[in-house]
Request: fold
Amino acid sequence: MKLHPYGMIYTVLYIILCKLFLETFAKKRSVSIFYTTMLLGVLSVLEYVCSVVLADFLVLKAILIIVMGTFVMMYVFGEKFWRILILMLLYQGLCFVTDCISWTFLNCVFASAGQEYLRSTNLQMFMAILSQILLFCILLIIKKCFIKQNTAILTGMQWIRITIFPIFTIITIISILIYFNMSSSEEQKNVLLCIAFGMLIMNILVFYLIGDILEGEEKLRKEVLFHKRVKSEIDMYHQIYSKSKFEVKEAVKNGDDFNVEVVISPIDVIVNSEDAISAAVDEFIANANADDYADEQAVNDALAKLVVDTINGNMANLGYQTEKSIIVKVEKDAQGYYGISDDAISALDQDMIAY
Reply:
């Protein structure tokens, strides 16, 4: 069994692109990067060995590669076997399409060179690189169409700018291919191969770097929105509680403790805002565009802000419901100090605002 370094690099990139494709449709579970990297590394070795040993048995080789990839990606993504298998078959189909495009291009460019030259190892590697960069571009388009969370931050023009790099890589690889047979030595051809592989790897690294930046920005944006929402809710309740209306009656001794009657007039602003809240929510649902929200949390944040704004807008109509009388027990602690329990405070707070 003859090992080829370019073949190993190709296999590693094949698996990375496979993971990139599956991330579009399968939710990645929280597995440590170390174990994920180990699994993908072992899978790369197994699939490369399988490709070399079963080079003359194409169908069997393809089946084994798909099955091995399915089991490993099942662990990485935590999805069911059949779902991952279907996605693996789709990915294999995309690989077949890009291979056909690359092979057709090579046959057109080197039509006069003969089949023996077309089957040379270096030229086959160039075909593989061209196929993978085409596959990478297709995966970018798929991610743009199917993923809304992080990619929603990017505008259409920004997406065009991102795709310039892989398009430039394709043009460069095609240019190298056209003048590949002019290279006078194997060393020069190996250098060109390294450049082509390096450009492909750089495309993938840049994509993941952009993905990490977008995830960081999305996380920061959610934190900012969360703090704004919490602050608006605190301000709303601060304004409501400032209108609190209650009367503390005379304390009545009960053994070592005291019973104190507190008469509360429940603040009526949330209950009398229910119709306005319901109308606002119905209007939001009717007019909301799902593409404007990255995920369910973003929708919930928008609804929470809507409710708070509606209640604040109805603050002028604040009123009071029928008075309620609550008996609060003032107890003596071990140090001889009197106070009320947390449960008593909760009971008072529960009736301070009508819900």
